[in-house]
């Protein structure tokens, strides 16, 4: 395994450690028929970068933040393609490893044309223990302002979070489902952003608000629960509020949550209030849903600002 030796002038503001995938996405008129002899033709097919951390970093760079990736890709066609995509996107990759023994995660995503619903099939080429951190990674993490994780490479994620907390770097976690060792990672997280089912699945508490409150007891500063088109809910030890989603005509929801994470981290870096930050993150996710693929439609800061200017919501000014 080798580390990609790309020069850098300075350390990035946000370091992401986690999942990166090669996505093949197709718009389909309906579910495939496995017994049909004739091929079902699809009106649109694209290749794109995916994965919670990888896409969030791309979103941050598009918004104007310096961001860098720590992780492992296979030295195969897909891995090299993803490395080159990071470079085109402007993501710093000095701590990216290319491996001859590990593969690259590949996902096939079918998007229903009339509803934007998705069916995902993923081949996991990289395993959780394939990333081992070193002192260069410690310096990289501790020089950042935010460390963003998604639970992939869990032992390395815990180590990086410990390094971050030791020097006051904020730790953000994208949690979509419980994972082994999650109980070791959660107490190290400042900003916990989760998919709607996560609080109940992790805590075993069936009442959503009680489950959310239980998650905050680990010492986190902020808990955000995303609800897709219905927006998000935000909890802190002192308050709880909901931000409505933004109405758009969705083409593909792939990467919407990842884009939300990028937008949320951006707002926190600006020192905005939580309501403004959550509204901004909703807008980043909404714009991304208008394009097929997780990263191809990520917006610039001016695009997000234009959308928010058209939305009549008091939350955007608080």
Order of helices and strands: EEEEHEHEEEHEHEHEHHEEEHHH
Query: Main β-sheet: number of strands, strand sense, barrel status?
Result: 10 strands, mixed
In what range is the share of β-strand residues? 15-25%
Number of helices: 10
Quick overview of this protein structure:
With 318 residues, the protein is α/β, with parallel strands linked by helices. Helices cover 33% and strands 25% of the residues.
Structure description:
The protein is an alpha/beta fold. It has helices spanning 52-63, 77-89, 135-142, 154-166, 182-185, 198-203, 208-216, 256-270, 274-288, 301-310; strands at 2-3, 14-17, 21-28, 44-50, 67-74, 92-99, 105-112, 118-123, 146-149, 170-175, 191-195, 222-226, 232-235, 240-243. The longest helix has 15 residues, at 256-270. The radius of gyration is 19 Å and the shape is globular. The termini are far apart. A 10-stranded mixed β-sheet has the order 1-6-5-2-9-10-11-12-13-14, with helices on both faces. Strands 4-3-7-8 form a 4-stranded mixed β-sheet. The chain contains 10 helices and 14 strands. Residues 313-318 have low confidence and may be disordered. Helix 1 packs across helix 8 and helix 8 runs antiparallel to helix 9 (274-288).
Question: What keywords describe this structure?
Answer:
318 residues; alpha/beta; 10-stranded mixed sheet; 4-stranded mixed sheet
Write the topology of this structure.
Blueprint: E1 2-3, E2 14-17, E3 21-28, E4 44-50, H1 52-63, E5 67-74, H2 77-89, E6 92-99, E7 105-112, E8 118-123, H3 135-142, E9 146-149, H4 154-166, E10 170-175, H5 182-185, E11 191-195, H6 198-203, H7 208-216, E12 222-226, E13 232-235, E14 240-243, H8 256-270, H9 274-288, H10 301-310
Parallel strand pairs: 2-5, 2-9, 3-7, 5-6, 9-10, 10-11, 11-12
Antiparallel strand pairs: 1-6, 3-4, 7-8, 12-13, 13-14
């Amino acid at each position: 395994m080798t580390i990609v030796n790309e020069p850098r002038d300075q350390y990035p503001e946000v370091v992401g450690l986690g999942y990166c995938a090669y996505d093949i996405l197709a718009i389909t008129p309906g579910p495939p028929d496995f017994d049909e002899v004739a091929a079902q033709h699809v009106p649109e097919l694209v290749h794109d970068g995916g994965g919670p951390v990888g896409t969030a970093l791309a979103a941050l760079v598009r918004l104007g933040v310096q961001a860098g990736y720590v992780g492992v890709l296979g030295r195969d066609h897909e891995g090299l393609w993803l490395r080159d995509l990071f470079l085109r996107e402007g993501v710093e990759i000095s701590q990216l490893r290319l491996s001859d023994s590990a593969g690259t995660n590949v996902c096939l995503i079918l998007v229903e044309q009339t509803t934007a619903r998705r069916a995902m099939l993923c081949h996991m080429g990289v395993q959780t223990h394939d990333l081992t951190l070193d002192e260069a990674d410690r310096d990289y993490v501790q020089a950042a302002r935010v460390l963003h994780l998604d639970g992939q490479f869990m032992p390395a994620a815990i180590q990086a979070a410990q390094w971050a907390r030791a020097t006051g770097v904020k730790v953000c976690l994208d949690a979509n489902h419980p994972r082994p060792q999650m109980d070791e990672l959660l107490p190290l997280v400042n900003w916990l952003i989760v998919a709607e089912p996560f609080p109940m699945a992790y805590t075993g508490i069936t009442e959503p608000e009680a489950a959310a409150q239980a998650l905050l007891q680990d010492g986190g500063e902020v808990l955000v629960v995303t609800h897709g088109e219905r927006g998000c809910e935000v909890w802190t030890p002192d308050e709880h509020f909901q931000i409505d989603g933004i109405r758009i005509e969705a083409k593909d929801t792939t990467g919407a949550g990842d884009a939300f994470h990028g937008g949320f981290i951006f707002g926190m870096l600006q020192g905005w209030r939580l309501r403004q930050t959550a509204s901004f993150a909703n807008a980043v996710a909404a714009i991304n849903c208008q394009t097929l693929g997780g990263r191809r439609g990520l917006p610039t800061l001016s695009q997000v600002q234009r959308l928010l200017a058209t939305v009549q919501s008091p939350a955007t000014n608080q």
